[in-house]
Amino acid sequence: MPSPIKVAKKGKIVYISIVERVLTPKERIILIRKGNELYNKGEIEKAAKIYTTTAYKDGLIRIGDYYYFDEKNPLKAFHFYLEAKYEKRIRELTERMAEIIKKWLKEDRKQENSSDEKVQKGSRTLAENSRDVKSGIPTPEGGTSQRSGERVSENSRD
Q: 18, 46, 93, 122: most buried, per Cβ within 10 A?
């Protein structure tokens, strides 16, 4: 069988093309039957490869349903529904995904709002501390704060 990759060179330019081998209708039917046997034996991955190769939509939908309902893996199921162009499930799953994203965004906003409130509370505490520094209240470091705008260094306190 010839290579599916063809290379042609014209001057400095190299052209690469991939030639796909098309299945005959008889080959396709044989492969689909083999895929059905594998599916019924529980060899889902092997069946999925055959269904993908043959573009067998009913098989791809069955694989999607397996991952969606049996394995509870909607993301993997979504891949097979897209491959089969199964609009009903594609719509259903995209709506679910959109709802999940909306929920995450709401949670993020709530967290941002609560952290903003903490920052505001922290700012008030900082403002109160700066007022305390001006009024001469002892600082946590053990010294006393400056009064009436005078600068006092640690070394000059005697």
A: 93
